[in-house]
Specification:
This protein is mainly α. The protein has helices at 7-17, 43-58.
């Protein structure tokens, strides 16, 4: 079972394997976690965060 922080890896995987899939999604409700033990500890991790946020933005998703 995946834990807190796994959303970064999951969304990065989605972006790389199925880049057009989000174009078919109308609403996405997710909770994004930041922290040393939550998949955002290294510079490479932060690159994933940035690319994930850019991907979501490109598909019209906005945080609220």
């Amino acid at each position: 079972m995946a834990g807190e922080g796994c959303e970064w890896t999951a969304l990065d995987h989605l972006a790389r394997r199925h880049p057009n899939l989000l174009g078919r999604v109308r609403q996405l409700n997710i909770e994004l976690h930041f922290g040393m033990g939550l998949g955002t500890a290294t510079a490479d991790d932060m690159d994933k965060v940035l690319s994930t946020i850019q991907l979501l933005d490109q598909h019209g998703f906005r945080p609220w």
